[in-house]
Amino acid sequence: MSQRRSKLWSRFQHWPVDEQSRLIEMAWEDRTPFDAIEAQFGLSEADVIRLMQRLLKPTSFRNWRARVSQRATKHVALRNSQVLRSHCPTQYKHR
Fold this sequence. Notes:
Layout lengths: L2 H11 L3 H12 L5 H8 L3 H11 L2 H12 L26
Helix pairs in contact: 1-4
């Protein structure tokens, strides 16, 4: 394992559990761009990919990578200019 990966993993493990969970949730969400993750957590797309590879089972990781690679919404540069939000309007409404 490279030194960069080791430092990244060590840093991640020292985060509060709720922040770890939020990062994973944002990575799974189709509408949350990697740029939003970078703004909130300071992690590049490559860093998020490395963490998800470590956190997920191999098959789950391959499925996740295939899905996010095909999503324009995960990449601001590919996103439709009319989409100004990073989540569904009803996503955070209390029920």
